[in-house]
Amino acid sequence: MSAVQEVVTEAPAVEAVPKRAMTLGNGTSLAMLLVLILVPLFVKNFIIFQLTMLLIYALAVLALNILTGGSGQFSLGQSAFYAVGAYTSAILMEHADINYALTLPIAGIVCFAFGFLFGQPALRLSGVYLALATFALATAMPQLLKLGVFEKWTGGVQGLVVTKPDAPFGLPMSQDMWLYYFTLAVSVAIYIFSVNLLKSRSGRAFMAIRDNEIAASAMGIDVALYKTLAFGVSAGITGVAGGLGAIAVQFVAPDGYTITLAISLFLGMVVGGVGWLPGSIVGSAFIIFVPNIAEGISKGLSGAVFGVLLFLVIFLVPHGARQIAVVAQQLLGKFKKN
Amino acid sequence: MRSKPRTLIAASATAILALAATTGAALAQKKYDTGATDAEIKIGNIMPYSGPASAYGVIGKTEAAYFNKINAEGGINGRKINFVSYDDGYSPPKAVEQARKLVESDEVLLIFNALGTPSNSAIQKYLNAKKVPQLFVATGAAKWNDPKDFPWTMGWQPSYQTEARIYAKFLMKEKPDARIGVLYQNDDFGKDYIKGLKDQLGARASMIIAEESYETSEPTIDNHIVKLKASGADVFLSITTPKFAAQAIKKLAEIEWKPLHIVSNVSTSVGGVIQPAGFENAQGILSANYGKDGADPQWNNDPGMKKFFAFLEKYYPEGNKLDGSVVYGYGAAQTMVKVLEMCGDNLTRENVMKQAASLKDFAPDTLLPGIKINTSATDFAPIEQLQMERFKGEKWDLFGDIISGEASN
Amino acid sequence: MELFTNQVLAGIATGAIYACMALAVVMIYQAIDHLNFAQGEMAMFSTFISWQLMQWGIPYWGAFVLTLAFSFAAGILIERLLFKPQAKAPILTNVAGFIALYAIINSVAGLIWDFTIKQYPTPFGSSPFLGSQLISTHQAGMIGVTVLLLILLYLFFQFTRIGLSMRAAASVPESARLVGVNTGWMIALGWGMAAAIGSIAGMLIAPVVFLEPNMMGGVLIYGFAAAVLGGLTSPFGAVIGGFLVGIIENLAGTYIPGVGNELKLPIALALIITVLVVKPAGLFGRPIVKRV
Questions:
Q1: What tens digit of pLDDT does each residue of C111-125 get?
Q2: Residues of chain B whose C-beta is under 8 A from some C-beta in C?
């Protein structure tokens, strides 16, 4: 403890993922899309509901991937943006009678602004300090939502019940199925947007900041602008996911948006592969289905089983699902050669 | 030649027999909805086995054990109970998922004793839309007694507002010049109490001179107690869950503050709250109860409690008889079994609700003598009576009459 | 004025809890340059072990020492078995590992000892301290032990070879190896010490908050906040940070009108973040210089 300063020459906290590896090839993407379109036609409504939640959480994990995997900013506070998006949608639908589809862009914009504003003080923080700041945000959100002053709109601790929309134009599909396809359309749009964002100049700026912030700044990148932009975009997408979540679950309450959600989203990102956008859906599947599997194995020890399964995953594939995809690609390449 | 009379008699006899047979068959006709068959009745349940409210998971385990007992004794009208219970971690979105799973995937007949106001609020609209009974919900929120808007939802325990009204009535009568300091948990449980209290106090609501709310994420509520003492209150109303109730009892003793201490019914467990906090610190504390306490030796020879203890020994040995949640689970499960018995062979969801709304003076083994369950088409609050009690020595002493907590003056 | 003093004193009393936890947090940070989310759960589990030992008849101080030894060994074991194999994995994966550890320990504790609260004894008694009704003898004892731990840690890091080696292994591992420091074992040692300090924190906190599997959840957040406020590189800062967080929270709850009571934690955290924005390394931490 004799040194006056602590000099850090560490590797970046978030490892670089080459740009090309950030997405799937076109063929695989189309195949996945086809699967996602066809599956609901053959399964029960409850499974469709679960698939809808799968897409919604995948969106939220995707947003986190842009923030952490893309711009290298650590966030344990995504549940706060998700909550704001959910409540925005719910309040607009229940108090202002606005059509559910219109509430989504509004939720997105509100959360973008919120994220952008939060990104400002976060500029001076990084690594573990940023983690604490975002953690604080996530912990504060349920308490903010319960505040007496807002009770007229938010319903306080009791929450708000949200009406589920019917399929429009009298289409012959159930509410669940319509909502699924609606969510799918929104997800695909956001996915394409995100891929293009990362390939664009802004995306390159994000990644430069992630890999070496000082060097990036030295090269003339407006670090402050891009970092807050990343927060804003990430928050905006999470907000849209939150809005969709409110409609799917038909209920918003402060207890549904605790730090547990933020941690789950973080785990989803890690399991899917940090920085690998297609992995978001794998991560989402992990956080939705593995707790159910754990509960099926042992009700009393469901947390322990979940922890053990998580450990297995990170031992076998420390880089997440991306590692599996890379291996698969290599095998496919060898197969093609023969 | 055939004798006409004989043919006539034979024909009439056959006709009468046939008529009797058909009528008998009509009487014995079984009606089922999804989840009920000749062999089994499938019951769904959602409990927080993990997460912040995991202490209440033991209710689900008690109920599972109770249904095992019923099955071992032959089931209900010959049918075994298949009890399917899922964990929601006290999170409303998860509760919705589990409810949909139970109804659409597991195809249960009804959902019984789901726990938590947020979780039940989340699934209420869905279950009513699907016409699936949401029976005997495990929360004291007042909103479950609304047969007009939610005909498929029914509560069980006395609501928090009911209990708060009883305390308000007591204070207005016994200590009209009281200066009340309230410590309450900042969630639906705490806020419902405050509402009931203020509603009953009415114009006298100014008796409340200090209110302190706390979050369950706070490690200790000690500093709230300090503030309440400083406010000069001489009545301390502790609307707290077990851990915080115990902390309050301990802190009061530490800072030598001796107000009239009233604690909420959810935290009266001798084994779960009073014993850890220290018997010597809890002398004179008041509360109200509707169930018998497993720690109270006055019930050792009570026939109902003897059955309860026997049940624990045989079917749930790791259950703690001092834990109020275990007693609760037994009582709720027993009520469920009674309703199913009353359904007979008509196990449609509609009939289940009808029978649940027709309970007359039903007394589960674990309810205090004199407290009975009554429901009707306009009254979906099964238990509405409580008796006040005072802690003395190492147990609660009941006193006074059984009070009904219905809103009145 | 009296209310103010009362709240400050009450804040110091609660702050002692946070300061204890913060010391354990700083300890692990010194060893691995990271915050271990499972720190609180490990402390809780150790406290349960000591409680169980006492249930089996072992007197308080015997159980205390045995638990310290157990925690130290368990910390090393967990590091060697679960985290050393991941040493080359990205940091975020390690964080996921901490979360998994949290889930496992919490669940197992719940299964073994269930979720009802248990009374936990204190060697200091619970009567008012020096006649003041705001601080009990136990809380005074807690502050005393924390300060003692702090001094011991300071001496350890400042004046012993191992202490220096541990710091070196954490911040500049390659250079440390070059001078012969066994970095692997330094990290394991750090885990062991952090687990031991955590267990002391748990055993001090349990008499106040009552022992149950979820007892450390809230405390850990405050411990983090306190450690970060004080500076993650400074045990002294951690302790001061703990007291400050307790005081700030209480004053915010008392004096900020309307929402103060309901937003105590968020306000405290907001203040900490403000401090960090101004002094990113915390109040007493060494300024961090980043090189390209």
A1: 898 888 888 988 887
A2: 50, 52, 54-55, 57-58, 186, 212-213, 215-220, 222-223, 226-227, 230, 242-243, 246-247, 250, 253-256, 271-273, 275-278, 320, 323
Query: Which pLDDT band holds residue B9 (cuts at 50, 70, 90)?
Result: low
Test A159 with B104 for CB contact under 8 angstroms: no
Are B255 and B314 found together in one domain?
no
What backbone phi and psi angles, to 5 degrees, belong to A215?
Answer: -65, -40
Is B14 a member of any domain? no
Minimal CA separation from B216 to chain A, in Å: 11
Please name the member of C225, C263, C280 whose beta carbon is closest to the beta carbon of A125: C280
The residue range of the domain holding B73 is: 40-158+301-378
Quote the pLDDT of residue C167: 80
Tally of domains within chain A: 1
Inter-chain CB proximity C209 and B323 less than 8 Å: no
8 Å CB contact of B272 and C136: no
CA dihedral B235, B238, B239, B244 (to 10 degrees): 160
- Would you give the distance in Å from CA B403 to the centre of its chain? 17
Strand partners, B291: B367
Distance from C-alpha of A84 to C-alpha of A236, rounded to nearest angstrom: 10
Same domain, B251 and B316: no
* A6 phi and psi angles, rounded to 5 deg: -110, 120
Residue of A nearest to C265 (CA): A140
CA distance A193 to chain C (A): 26
C250 and B276: CB-CB below 8 Å? no
Q: Kindly state the percentage of chain C with pLDDT values over 70.
A: 93
CB contact under 8 A, C107 and A269: no
Which chains, if any, share at least 3 CB pairs under 8 A with chain C? Answer: A, B
Number of inter-chain CB pairs under 8 A, A vs B: 80
Distance CA B348, CA B351 (A): 5
pLDDT, tens digit (0-9, with 9 covering 90-100), for A160-204: 888 888 777 777 778 888 899 999 999 999 999 998 888 888 888
For residue C124, give how far its alpha carbon lies from the nearest alpha carbon of chain B (Å).
13
- The alpha carbon torsion through C181, C185, C191, C195 (nearest 10 deg) reads -120
Is residue C67, in this structure, part of any structural domain at all?
Answer: yes
AA letter at A284: S
> Is B66's pLDDT higher than 80?
yes
pLDDT at A309: 92
CB contacts of C262 in chain B (<8 Å) are 186, 213, 215
Q: Is the pLDDT of residue B147 over 80?
A: yes
Residue C180 dihedral angles phi and psi, to the nearest 5°: 95, 10
Asked, for residue C287, whether it belongs to a domain, the answer is no
Shortest distance between the Cα of C90 and any Cα of chain A, in A, equals 7
Average pLDDT value for residue range A292-312: 88
Q: What is the share, in percent, of chain B residues with pLDDT greater than 70? A: 92
What SS3 state is found at B324?
Answer: helix
- In a domain, residue B32? The reply is no
DSSP, res C179: T
Q: Which domain holds residue A117?
A: 34-257
- What is the DSSP pairing of strand C128-129 with strand C132-136? antiparallel
Calculate how close chain B gets to C58, using CA atoms only, in Å: 19
In this complex, the residue of C35, C82, C111 whose CB is nearest that of residue A128 is C35
User: In 10 A of CB A199, how many CB atoms?
Assistant: 14
Residues B171 and B116 in one domain: no
Compute the distance between CA of residue A118 and CA of residue C262 in angstroms, rounded to an integer.
Answer: 22
Average pLDDT of the segment spanning B100-115:
93
Q: Are residues B169 and B119 in the same domain?
A: no
CATH number for the domain spanning B52: value is 3.40.50.2300
Quote the pTM value.
0.88
Which residues have a Cβ under 8 Å from the Cβ of B264 and sit 6 or more positions away? Answer: B160, B163, B193, B238, B239, B240, B245, B287
